[in-house]
Amino acid sequence: MASSFSAEEESRLLEVFCLFCGVDAEKGQMDGRQFAKLMRDTGMLTKKFTSIDTDIIFAKVKAKALRKIDFNQFLAAAELCAGAKKVPVSDVVATLTSGGGPKVAGTRTDKVRLHDDRGGYTGVHSKGGPSTVDSERQIDFGTPPPRAAKASSGVASATSQMQSMQVSDGGYTLKMFFTDHSLGAKEMDGRQFVKMAKDTKIVDKKPPGLTTTDLDIIFAKVKAKSARKINFAQFQEALVHCAEKKHVYLEDLEAHLVAFGGPVFTGVKADNVKLHDDKSTYTGVYTHGGPDTGSMGAHHDISTLTDRTPADVRGVKR
Known about the structure:
Elements: H1 7-21, E1 30-31, H2 32-41, H3 51-61, E2 68-69, H4 71-85, H5 89-98, H6 113-116, H7 146-152, H8 155-164, H9 174-181, E3 188-189, H10 190-199, H11 212-222, E4 229-230, H12 232-246, H13 250-260, H14 274-277
Antiparallel strand pairs: 1-2, 3-4
């Protein structure tokens, strides 16, 4: 069957066909979604020629059991479109080729002053944080005292200084403090780190002091990526950040922790119950210390209540 299109029209239609095929252009195939978008973007659709008509035409020209059409089937679909719209084929070619490539549209976000105007940021957000990525946490805790800044200038020097700090007579050291609060383990998790700070009363109730939120951020900053616990060296680095946040000297913070000692353990204390605790109020058998299931004559099982001596089938003793 001879084509209704000239060589020039086929060349122009091939260019449009490839533009709307997208990633399938090299294969020379177009699916139903791409065909419907071509009809919509090029202005082929009218009140009388709707997207339902384009779906019917696409189903007519495609091979059975296949989902896509090639260029020859696309030309046949263009002829059917001309017949359905009752216009010359040349008008369909002009409409399809005048629209250019596919139109890409997206949603434009509204302006939100509290988000877009960074001059209105407050709290930790005004300092560039917090960040959920450990390696990218860049939070400014403010300007620490000169000695604290000197101690934090190099974590390695501060670490070596802290490792050598201990009581001259071989007493309690920071290493022992860490071991006690990690319950004898070589590493400490986030819960134990926060509990240590609460037990030693270095946590402040309100910013700009050291809050529990700051402790979580510091713990995430010093721990290894994908790890859940910190070792002693990372604990020492965390103390440097705690000193900066509290605006105190690192040596004073260490001395406070070492002087405090091990963790604080609390439990629930039972209430006083007079009728239970005061034995002078006991009555009846309880005044004599009973009842006692171990007393002589007490029944411990059914063997002391039944007669298991030999008898015949009628129950007569032998």
